[in-house]
């Protein structure tokens, strides 16, 4: 199995396209300034030792060096030892709403961010339980199959964002269907936690929850949002530029549908809680899950990992040496080396 030990450094890779864009603008500015002094051919003759191609190569080497250093800091690791063990726990699938209404900020910093924080806190409290992750909006998809790899669960949680499913809506029934199919055949305790604001719900959600209850699966619902609701922000370039409006130009207010979420939880023999700006309400769900009957099951994990950062460090050093040896100016001795160079014989 492959993983990164420090995934936070991978976020810095986003600097690369920014630096590439800045370099492109810089070269355009330099070319515009050069044109003010005369034609390109004339300037090239006045500065015969300057090589634009070498400058581009040096920049590419610098970018690759930076990428190598960041990957080394993230410390890629490969699982080197497999360990079989018996664990006692429950199977838990979290279904997270990623529709646009989850961007509302009635719960700080936003509904979706608070939901991610709650899931991360739940993962931290798990010991021998297995966990899976489903995301849904107008459709539902499996983001992470049931696993005991909590590091992978947190990594996949970090990739969740509201625009990952283009079809808008709240397909809770479909999410329950996929969650039910995700569970293993073992007779372990099974639970589904649905985290949503409940808007635009489908009518079959309550029926699907009842089916899950008959199969021995508990359904818990966590409502994200406050009773008064909030507008749905529109983001551009990382900032809020406005709020979603309907066809008449009125700002849309997204409100929590507690009635439906309560019905789903009741049909699924679980409980409903409403999230707020504290974590106290979520504790009820966590405590109830801990009371579920835990079953012993076999599991296979990688118990040891080997670091692979040294390869990226070596690559970065090699690229730095190449960058150091490569000059922006044309090398006169290199120009003398030409496999196809020939001199014209003078005619007598």
Q: Care to describe what's here?
A:
This protein is of the alpha/beta class. It folds into 2 domains: 2-75 and 308-335, no CATH class; 83-300, von Willebrand factor, type A domain (Rossmann fold). It is 40% helix and 25% strand. The chain contains 11 helices and 12 strands. The strands form 3 sheets. Strands 1, 2, 3, 4, 5, 6, 11 and 12 form an 8-stranded mixed sheet that branches. Helix 3 (52-74) packs antiparallel against helix 10 (309-325). The chain is flat and about 85 Å long. Mean pLDDT is 81; it is low at 337-348.
The largest sheet, given as strand count, sense and whether it forms a barrel, is: 8 strands, mixed
CATH fold name of the largest domain, please?
Rossmann fold
Helix content: 25-40%
Number of domains: 2
Beta-strand residue fraction: 15-25%
């Amino acid at each position: 199995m492959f993983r990164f030990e420090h995934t936070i450094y991978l976020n810095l890779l986003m600097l690369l396209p920014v630096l590439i864009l800045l370099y492109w603008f810089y070269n355009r500015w330099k070319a515009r300034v050069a044109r003010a002094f005369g034609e390109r051919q004339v300037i090239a003759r006045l500065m015969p030792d300057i090589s634009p191609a070498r400058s581009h190569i040096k920049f590419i080497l610098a970018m690759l060096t930076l990428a190598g250093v960041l990957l080394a800091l993230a410390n890629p690791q490969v699982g080197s030892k497999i360990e079989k063990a018996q664990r006692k726990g429950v199977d838990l699938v979290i279904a997270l709403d990623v529709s646009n209404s989850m961007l509302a900020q009635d719960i700080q910093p936003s509904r979706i961010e608070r939901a991610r924080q709650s899931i991360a806190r739940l993962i931290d409290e798990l010991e021998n339980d297995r966990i899976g992750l489903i995301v849904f909006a107008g459709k539902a998809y499996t983001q992470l199959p049931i696993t005991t790899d909590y590091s992978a669960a947190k990594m996949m949680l970090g990739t969740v964002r509201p625009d990952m499913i283009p079809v808008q809506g709240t397909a809770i029934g479909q999410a329950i269907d996929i969650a039910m199919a995700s569970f293993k055949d073992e007779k372990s305790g099974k639970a589904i936690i649905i985290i949503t604001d409940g808007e635009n719900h489908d009518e079959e959600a309550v029926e699907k929850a009842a089916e899950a209850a008959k199969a021995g699966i508990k359904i818990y619902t966590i409502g994200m949002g406050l009773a008064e609701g909030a507008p749905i922000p529109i983001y551009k370039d990382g900032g809020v530029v406005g709020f979603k409006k309907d066809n008449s130009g009125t700002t849309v207010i997204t409100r929590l549908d507690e009635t439906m979420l309560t019905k789903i939880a009741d049909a699924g023999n679980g409980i409903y809680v409403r999230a707020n700006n504290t974590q106290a309400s979520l504790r009820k769900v966590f405590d109830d899950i801990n009371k579920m009957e835990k079953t012993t099951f076999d599991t296979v994990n990688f118990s040891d990992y080997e670091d692979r950062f040294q390869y990226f460090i070596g690559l970065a050093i090699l690229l730095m040496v190449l960058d150091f040896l490569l000059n922006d100016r044309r090398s006169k001795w290199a120009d003398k080396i030409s496999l196809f160079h020939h001199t014209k014989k003078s005619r007598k």
